[in-house]
Design brief:
This protein is of the alpha/beta class. The protein is built from 12 helices and 12 strands. It has a 7-stranded parallel sheet, sandwiched between helices. The chain has a 5-stranded parallel sheet with strand order 2-1-3-4-5.
Length: 335
């Protein structure tokens, strides 16, 4: 079987080659999948995509017409593929759900510590030989309330880590996890209480119709002044315009994210020569209390090894006619 890997990045190709160990014929291309690049899948039976690829209805229809049967995502999130349409076109789709929750949870903590203790500002300052401390005040995390929206694979690891910091943990999830209540004293609450009482809020839910703009203007008005918000899930869970207003009005003390609402066309490439046109992102990056990383939470050796292995394992299952445990259930309605 021939596999076309879209959005292949130089740093991940060695991991994919090792996991494949030459059992499939694989072509790696840097192009993201979209209506223009779908045609590149001609002659292949399977494609692999990442979170910046656009597998919308029109693209899926083209892929079906080109003879594609299998789509394996090198990501846990799958908001960029219209699962219902894929089913209608007879395409099998699987994601990489549990490649390394630790990688993402640890990056969330890195963002939190950097934002709270102003590490990124201190670094900028020191490089201009400014050794003052007046702009660098943070707060102790011990005894603070950590609000977590989404206690799935990543959220559960994060709960364990933040419990280690001595935080009281409030959580919100459609499916509360009893073990987290028993082991770490997590209290599951409604969003309103989480917003009102948390000193730090971490977003760890998938992007779905229900979570799109979940963190809205109304949410910001409920939050404690001085709250820090960390988003390592998906950008569009936060209403960026409302976020900018909240930052301007000093309703929140800071925002750190590994994701952005409109990553397409900007993230995953070097725009330093030509700059960017997205006014909201430009605006966000102008705040001293905003820290954005370029969707890098999964970039650890362990996560990349696991993503590569899961990608080929998904294909193996389909080829052998076995059940693929990562095949996406069609009942899930995602954007
Ligand atoms: P998961 O599926 O294990 O957990 C998600 C949790 O959110 C579940 O407990 C679910 O019940 C809950 N949830 C879903 N909809 C909800 C709603 N409307 N209200 C309240 N709770 C809701 O997913 P996992 O592995 O923890 O990943 C979470 C998200 O993180 C992914 O969907 C993905 O978008 C993002 N992610 C980001 C990465 C990055 O590189 N920045 C890498 C991996 C994942």
């Amino acid at each position: 079987m021939k596999l076309l890997v879209y959005s292949a990045q130089d740093f991940e190709i060695p991991f994919l080659k090792k996991a494949n160990s030459a059992r499939y014929k694989v072509k790696y291309i840097p192009d993201a999948l979209d209506t223009n690049t779908a045609i590149k899948a001609v002659g292949f039976e399977a494609i692999s995509i990442f979170s910046g690829d656009d597998a919308c209805l029109v693209v899926l229809e083209k892929l079906r017409d080109l003879g594609i049967k299998y789509i394996t995502l090198r990501s846990a999130g799958y908001n960029n593929i219209q699962i219902k349409a894929a089913k209608r076109f007879g395409l099998k789709v699987a994601n990489a759900p549990d490649y390394s929750p630790n990688a993402i949870a640890e990056h969330t903590v890195a963002l939190l510590l950097s934002l709270n203790r102003k590490i990124f500002l201190a670094d900028r300052q020191i490089r201009t030989y400014n050794f003052e401390q007046k702009k660098l005040m943070g707060f102790d995390l011990v005894n603070k309330t950590f609000g977590i929206i989404g206690t799935g694979r990543i959220g559960s690891v994060l709960v364990k880590i933040m419990n280690g910091f001595g935080c009281k943990i409030l959580a919100h999830d459609l499916l509360p996890n009893k073990k987290l209540v028993e082991r770490y004293g997590v209290e599951y609450v409604e969003l309103e209480r989480l917003y009102k009482q948390s000193d730090v809020i971490s977003i760890n839910v998938p992007l779905t119709r229900e979570t799109h703009y979940m963190v809205s203007e109304e949410a910001f008005t409920l939050m404690k002044p001085g709250v820090l918000i960390i988003n390592t899930a998906r950008g569009a869970i936060v209403d960026t315009k409302a976020l900018i207003m909240a930052l301007m009005g000093k309703k929140i003390a800071g925002y750190a994210a590994d994701v952005y609402e409109k990553e397409k066309g900007i993230f995953f490439k070097d725009n330093s020569d030509q700059g960017i046109m997205d006014e909201n992102l430009i605006n966000l990056l102008s705040f001293e209390n905003v820290l954005i990383t370029p969707h890098q939470a999964y970039v650890t050796q362990e996560a990349l090894t696991n993503i590569a292995e899961i990608t080929f394992d998904n294909l193996d299952r389909w080829v052998k006619g076995e059940t693929c445990r990562n095949e996406l259930g069609y009942e899930t309605l995602v954007l």
